[in-house]
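Example record

One chain of 307 residues, shown exactly as stored in the release files.
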Amino acid sequence: MSSLKVREGEADFNVPDAVKPCKTWYKVYGTLPHPYNPPLVVLHGGPGSTHEYLDILSELTRLFDVPVILYDQIGNGRSTHLPEKNGNVDFWIVQLFVDELHNLLNHLNIHDNYNVLGQSWGGMLASEFATRQPKGLGKLVIADSPASMALFVKAANDLRKGLPQEVQDALNKHEAADTTTDPEYIAAMNEFYKRHSCRLDPVPQSLVDGLAWMEKDPTVYSTMNGPNEFNITGYLKTWNVIDRLHNIQATTLLINGRYDITHDIVVEPFFQHIPKVRWVQFADSAHVPHLEETERFMQVVWAFLRG
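Predicted structure tokens for this chain:
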């Protein structure tokens, strides 16, 4: 990894409603412009996480010479934080993040030829971006992402029924009492996450680091999502891209894990409605196959980008 060409920077991002200057922090692995491989722009999940847990995608640069661009979305990580906008559902909307992505593409001067990979919430954002038929978008990877929040909640609650009864009882008790910060509730949620978020033990430090930002500044996650995956109360509660998926012109790769919280029922609408699409499932993974089955993940993504 040390031999990789890596640079970091910040893109000025004009957000009129922010009432202060905003910047998007980014990291580029590899060479821009590249003579033959379009860069892969990576959109992280959350909403409210950061790039760290996706840093391993720099393997695509090391192995296949694909330039990889990671960035922290506005409100998160090393980009500008806006805690004064906590709870403002008119501010934290999909269009804000679509605008930020366009701004970054322009800043890096790659708007004419690039690919996009979005993971979890990042895949939701990527699908929204692609429905607008942006110029220069070649290929699209939607990894571990739902096509609608209603389907996502249904899948999460279906998977919840597979938990040991005492874990289900703890979840039910604290949700009814609105005591979801209780250690017993958090332990029960962690049992769910061990099965359906990341099956590795110990959990990779990069994933711990990415999620830790959501505790340091919960503004984006709490406003857009809510308390957790079972209780979506924020802006995304009614989010649904299904009726616009037919507008996606980019050839698309869908990815999920066999044990993924984004279970098959939430991925299937992408497969049904995107015109040019294929779907690969990772048999030994939950929500982060790029960490759980790294070698195969890189091979699958590279074969798609190259094909």
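Notes: The chain has a mean pLDDT of 95.
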